[in-house]
Design brief:
Layout: H1 3-11, E1 15-17, E2 60-64, H2 71-85, E3 89-94, E4 108-112, H3 126-141, E5 145-149, H4 151-165, E6 171-176, H5 179-182, H6 191-199, E7 203-206, H7 209-219, E8 225-227, E9 253-258, H8 267-280, E10 283-288, H9 294-303, E11 310-314, H10 319-322, E12 328-331, H11 340-347, E13 352-355, H12 360-363, E14 370-373, H13 378-389, H14 392-409, H15 412-424
Parallel strand pairs: 2-3, 2-5, 3-4, 5-6, 6-7, 7-8, 9-10, 9-12, 10-11, 12-13, 13-14
Antiparallel strand pairs: 1-4
Bound molecules: ligand GMT.
Length: about 425
């Protein structure tokens, strides 16, 4: 990162992420006085923004996402980093630093939306603070568009920001990720606002065909929703090397699960499957992540007398180191729009045993890259795990195919290119 850029970032009370890696070509954008200025706040000033006669090529993009360990935040962050490497200037606007924003990268900025607390508030109005921060960042950095990940409530905050910025023409892209459509958005308390903010986004994308169809059917969305699958970097999520990192003694096999431990993840099924497998094959279960169902999972583990063989690692920041150590990855969710972690496991040559719900069949091919069963069909899940653990050649073949599919169908370049085309269509 140049000193100018870093200085500018500090002046705008911004945390800049990255800067070490060499940047590539400059973003393609048509030339305007503001657009060609030095990096840093452009200081267009409140209310001074004139309506652009025609939209410039989006070269400066605001990204909003949840910052915790969930897949939507991972996708948003990896997308932002990939765009930055392609010369885009990327401004993350979020309540916290996204968890995967852990590398130093040029062209990447972070703006924290902090809400004031006040005794009158029952709850701090975070989403209003977010909309206000969006407005501030768009004006100061002359952003072309906001790309929000997870409709609820970010698409609503972006809508508000866009209205506040009128007559400036700010593009809003919304990516639907999962429970924003299947669980929380359908709550009566949020239905209308979710529906409205999706309809009023300039472009809408969904991470699977399943999710697109579910959004159309549930919310009666008539505008186009483009499917752009999640992606993985096969260089980062690569097969196991000779590693000193050990999760189990050499004679034990490793089953792995990673999630945010919510009800939809069907955690009891993971433990029940492991309880059965362990009676037949010496094995360990590695549970990664944290969330509301974790305490109950630990309790069930104790009740079944499995505590010596189940490792609850909590949230981990190094999935690329852990996933390759698994022999089989388990994801028996009751609802799953895509299952990013399953794709990361596949990229690491680990076959996946999962449920046949939602978008999972678009990611994992039954009998080819893993096995799919009804989420409640414990016997089916157990028999597939045992089949893989009992036949190393099958396990390896499926793992290799899984990696090929991850590379060929879910590559970063393809999906990032598709997002860029969405941005360019906003010109
Ligand atoms: O929707 C959620 O539950 C949260 C979200 C997240 O932030 O992790 O997960 C969803 O988005 C991921 C990234 O696109 C998908 O891989 C997950 O399948 C999806 N979760 C569900 O549909 C339950």
């Amino acid at each position: 990162m140049s000193r100018t850029r870093l200085g500018a970032a500090r002046a705008g009370s911004v945390r800049a992420a990255g800067g070490g890696r060499g940047r590539t070509a400059a973003p393609e954008r048509s030339r305007t006085a503001a657009g060609d200025g030095p990096p840093g706040p452009r200081g267009r000033g409140r209310g001074r923004a004139a309506p652009s006669r025609r939209r410039r090529r989006p070269g400066r993009i605001g990204i909003t996402c949840y910052s915790h360990f969930g897949g939507s935040g991972v996708v948003a962050t990896e997308l932002g980093l990939a765009l930055a490497r392609r010369g885009y200037e990327v401004h993350f606007v979020a309540h916290r630093l996204p968890s995967r924003l852990r590398r130093f990268e040029a062209n990447v900025f972070f703006h924290e939306a902090v809400a004031a607390s006040y005794p009158v508030f029952d709850q701090t109005p975070l989403n209003l603070a977010l909309a206000t921060k969006m407005v501030e960042v768009v004006e100061n950095y002359d952003l072309d568009l906001l790309h929000v990940h997870y409709a609820m409530p970010f698409a609503a905050s972006a809508y508000l920001a866009r209205q506040l910025l009128l007559p400036r023409q700010l593009g809003v892209v919304t990516t639907l990720h999962g429970t924003d459509i299947t669980v929380v958005g359908v709550e009566p308390a949020f239905f209308r606002i979710t529906q409205f903010s999706i309809q009023s986004s300039d472009r809408v994308t969904a991470v699977s065909r399943f999710l697109k169809e579910r959004a159309e059917a549930t919310f009666g969305i008539t505008r186009e929703i483009e499917v752009i699958y999640n992606f993985v970097d096969p260089k980062l999520f690569a097969p196991r090397k000779r590693s000193t990192l050990r999760l189990a003694p050499p004679e034990s096999r490793v089953l792995m699960h990673a999630s945010n431990f919510r009800q939809v993840k069907n955690i009891p099924a993971v433990i029940q499957v492991f309880a059965e497998v362990r009676t037949r094959v010496p094995s360990k279960l590695v549970m990664i992540g944290d969330g509301p169902e974790k305490a109950a999972a630990e309790q069930l583990t104790r009740e079944l007398g499995l505590e010596r063989d189940v490792l609850f690692l909590g949230n981990q920041d190094c999935m690329e180191e852990l996933l390759p150590l698994a022999d089989v990855f388990l994801l028996p969710s009751s609802s799953e729009s895509f299952g990013l972690v399953a794709l990361e496991a596949m990229s690491a040559e680990v076959p996946v045993v999962a449920s046949n719900v939602g978008g999972l069949p678009e990611v994992v091919e039954h009998g080819v890259t893993g096995f799919l069963h009804d989420p409640g069909h414990i016997a089916g899940l157990v028999s597939s795990v045992l089949r893989l653990l009992g036949n190393e050649s099958l396990r390896r073949t499926m793992g290799r195919r899984a990696r090929r599919v991850a590379r060929e169908r879910f590559g970063t370049d393809e999906m990032v290119g598709r997002y860029i085309r969405v941005y360019e269509s906003l010109r």
